[in-house]
Design brief:
Layout: H1 2-9, E1 12-13, E2 33-36, H2 40-48, E3 55-59, E4 62-66, E5 75-79, E6 82-87, E7 102-109, E8 129-136, E9 147-154, E10 173-182, E11 187-188, E12 199-200, E13 203-210, E14 215-221, E15 245-250, E16 260-265, E17 272-274, E18 282-286, E19 288-289, E20 297-301, E21 310-312, E22 343-345, E23 351-352, E24 358-365, E25 375-382, E26 390-393, H3 404-407, E27 428-435, E28 441-448, E29 452-462
């Protein structure tokens, strides 16, 4: 009877997407009224009889009533560990003519990791799991080195996502640390166990230099009980349990005591930004979804150092390739199971191309993730003047786990002992990119198998003839 219910209550049936059930799904968008009802059919009937109601969402015995100004125009039914999405009377927007498409070519993909417990000593060796790197650039006269912030997991039992690594030195646990590198050549020193810098209990650094004020800024995943989370998103009913992105700044990146705490942001994970002068809009992509959000969000600020951001809607009407967004426009969504993309996570900062547009690389999970899928790399071309406007999106992933430090020897001979250690097999998590100095060429740094650091080089060109 479920299809009949859909036909009776709504005008358009969307694609059904399988995913994990989200806790408190009603907080993904705002509602103006809530009714306690047992069945989706009752929720549908209430909405039909309420002239103010455009959309309704049934979840855990409650019916959340929504309209165009406050709600996500999507109804979600919990059934057999799946979400059934239903869109109703949304206006159709005619797409504007698309811009000339870009080509994004993988020029090189390192066969061996830059940092790993499987490397030789003196060649990027660590006795910890090291992954999810972020480029740290020089900032003379305060900082004259260059290298990578890295997520490091140490201890006799490094749980992280479930796997273990035996190691010798203390202290133990998750933290962010640093190692010097020749970033263009992709050659790194062994992380120094005596290096005083570390952020204990922190994960997934995203460092970015602001040339307009001379500060190094850092987003990272962690908690800060001394900095209360502020809900400053007029379009996004996020809650404090997602306030796990910490935003800090410093002029001396290896002096943790010098870090100024700016804000604790309800983005769940990552801040991937383009920074502009005070008064102009700086933009950041963030989040992960489905779960805890439907997809990736984008926010802006007119003063990057303030930590006051405002979520805005995406615009895909000029995209030359498919790029689904949620009906309320707040979330960029996965391409779908048929396109081998079921989950997204914000990846690298946005980088300006010679055309003035921006490129960023995001993480994407394929069907079967976690146990039987891959974590891969997709890309976005965004309008340089308005990065919320999507110009083009990858239709296939540019980096897929291939080498042993990415797959952890998954699929190898039975009984094989893998040289590389990590928390999850079949992972490439691109979280940092930098220009190489050649026109529109970028070196990517990524986590491989959640325990190693790899690199790749990507070239971007715009096809003017098209």
């Amino acid at each position: 009877m479920l299809p009949a219910l859909f036909a009776k209550c709504f005008f358009f049936l969307s694609t059904v997407i399988a995913c994990s059930i989200l806790e408190n799904t009603d907080t993904a968008s705002k509602y103006y009224d809530k009714k306690a009802v047992k069945h989706p059919a009752q929720c549908c009937a209430i909405c039909q009889n309420d002239a103010h109601c455009s959309f309704a969402q049934h979840f855990e015995g409650n019916c959340y009533l929504k309209h165009l100004e406050t709600g996500n125009p999507k109804t979600v039914f919990k059934r057999n560990s799946m979400f059934f999405g239903v869109r109703s009377h949304l206006p159709n927007t005619a797409p504007r003519p698309s811009t000339s498409p870009y080509t994004v070519e993988l020029r090189s993909h390192a066969r061996f990791p830059v940092l790993s417990s499987g490397n030789e000593k003196g060649k990027g060796y660590s006795d910890c799991l090291v992954f999810n790197p972020s480029v740290v650039l020089p900032n003379p006269p305060y900082f004259n080195r260059s290298g990578l912030y890295i997520r490091e997991c140490c201890g006799k039992e490094c749980f992280g996502h479930g796997r273990q690594l035996r190691r010798l030195r203390e202290p133990m646990g998750e933290r962010i640390t640093y190692t010097d590198c020749d970033l263009l050549a992709a050659e790194c020193n062994d992380p120094d166990p005596n290096e005083l810098f570390s952020i204990p209990g922190a994960e997934d650094p995203r460092a970015i230099f602001n040339p307009h004020d001379g500060y190094q800024y850092l987003f990272y995943y962690g908690s800060n009980k001394n900095l209360p989370c502020k809900d400053i998103y007029p379009l996004n009913a996020t809650t404090s349990d997602q306030c796990t992105v910490q935003f800090v700044r410093t002029r001396t990146p290896l002096d943790f005591a010098s870090f100024e705490m700016i804000a604790s942001l309800p983005w769940h994970r990552n801040g991937c930004c383009v920074v502009r002068p005070v008064g102009a809009k700086s933009f950041c992509m963030w989040g992960e979804g489905p779960g805890p959000f439907p997809g990736l969000g984008i926010s802006y600020t007119t003063n990057f150092s303030s930590g006051v951001f405002h979520q805005i809607t995406w615009d895909n009407t000029s995209s030359s390739t498919p790029s689904p967004i949620s009906p309320d426009g707040l979330w960029m969504l996965p391409l779908g199971e048929d396109k081998f993309e079921i989950k997204l996570e914000a990846g690298t900062h946005m980088h300006e191309l010679s055309t003035g547009d921006l490129v960023t690389f995001y993480a994407a999970a394929t069907p079967g993730w976690v146990e039987h899928g891959n974590y891969t790399v997709g890309w976005l071309i965004l309008d340089g003047k308005n990065p919320a406007r999507i110009l083009e999106r990858s239709t296939s992933h540019i980096l897929v786990p291939t080498y042993d430090y990415e797959t952890l020897c998954s699929g190898g001979p039975a009984g094989q002992t893998c040289r590389y250690k990590g928390e999850r097999h079949n992972v490439i998590f691109a979280c940092s990119a930098m220009p190489t100095g050649k026109k529109d060429e970028f070196r990517l740094y990524f986590g491989g198998g959640d325990g190693n650091v790899g690199t790749a080089v990507v070239q971007i060109e715009k096809l003017e003839s098209m």
